[in-house]
Amino acid sequence: MKNIITIIFLFLVTTVVWGQSCSTFQGTDPGYVLTAGQLALSGTNSFTGAIGKRYKLNLIAGQSYTITGCSGFGFGTDLEFSIFNYASTILYQVDSDGCGTNDETYTFTAPYTGLYWLLLSENNCDLVCTFGCTGTITVACTTCPATAPAVPAIGQNNPVATDLCADAPLVQNLEGYGGSTSSAYTATGNSASLVSNFCGSIENNSFIKFIASATTAEFEFWIPSCSVGIDGVQFQVFSVTGACATGTWTSVSNGCVNPTGGANSWGKFVATSLTVGNTYYLMFDGFAGNVCDYVVKGVSGLATCPIRPWHGFPSM
């Protein structure tokens, strides 16, 4: 009898532990499913999500986002949302308590601008869904503006971003800096540290640099047009220790913008933990080689100077 009780006890313990694993990440990360531009404006955006998978979202500090799910996951699925910061520390977790009848909805305010992870799981695996079971997830910003602000003027003193970091121009007109992810740029000459710390693959990256005037710098971006591709641009801010081509690259931008979205996209990104007076590098890369014009404005935290009338986008 004692042996039977022991077996039953071990079976129950094993079942509980197995069930708890359903709240963890399983398999390949699907990455970005919505663009930063979509999540910067009011409206509802949807994608097909899978139980046990995590998805990247670029959100804006102070804005309210509502996540809804369960459609298609199966009747009685006990869907659970887990939201992590870019460093994979959990911020919020909500259990739907059975959302096959009524969609689960969760609203939260983003505490910072940048990358977040959204993990979809079934609480304790105690109902109908297994890993990979798919359904519709919607993400809506309920407090974001309905339309993007007007594109700022671009200064005449607008140096061309360079293919190599070592040649990057110091830009002080970030009240309106314009450039393009031209196909003339290449992915050669990049530090191995840069490649490993970038949020995606590099195809046609280029660089400018700026001087920090505060510990946090905030930027806005606009994508006026794209001649190749519809996904847009990737932005990321780095500090560099040592030489550009061989030194250590550290991201200071809460993840990165990846991607912006295509023509007419707008959004924000920030750089944090800056040292006043130090130089930092802003890298541009066309998502999967997209060729797009972009405009970047330094909202705060970096040295600027007055701009002159716009004379068009620079070409490489």
Descriptive overview:
It is a single chain. With 316 residues, the chain is mainly β. It has two domains: 22-141, Jelly Rolls (Sandwich); 165-300, Jelly Rolls. The chain has helices spanning 2-20, 36-40, 192-197; strands spanning 31-32, 43-50, 54-59, 64-71, 79-85, 90-95, 104-109, 114-122, 134-141, 177-180, 206-211, 217-228, 233-241, 248-251, 265-271, 279-286, 291-300. The strands form four sheets. Strands 1-3-8-5-6 form a five-stranded mixed beta sheet. Strands 2-9-4-7 form a four-stranded antiparallel beta sheet. Strands 10-17-12-15 form a four-stranded antiparallel beta sheet. The protein starts with a helix and ends in a 16-residue tail after the last strand.
Please supply descriptive tags for the structure shown above.
single chain, 316 residues, mainly beta, Jelly Rolls, five-stranded mixed sheet, four-stranded antiparallel sheet, 3 helices, 17 strands, globular
Q: Quickly give the CATH architecture of the largest domain.
A: Sandwich
Estimate the global geometry from the Cα principal axes: globular
Alpha plus pi helix count: 3
Q: Compute the gyration radius: what is it?
A: 22 Å
Which consecutive residue ranges, at least 5 long each, have pLDDT under 50? 1-23, 306-311
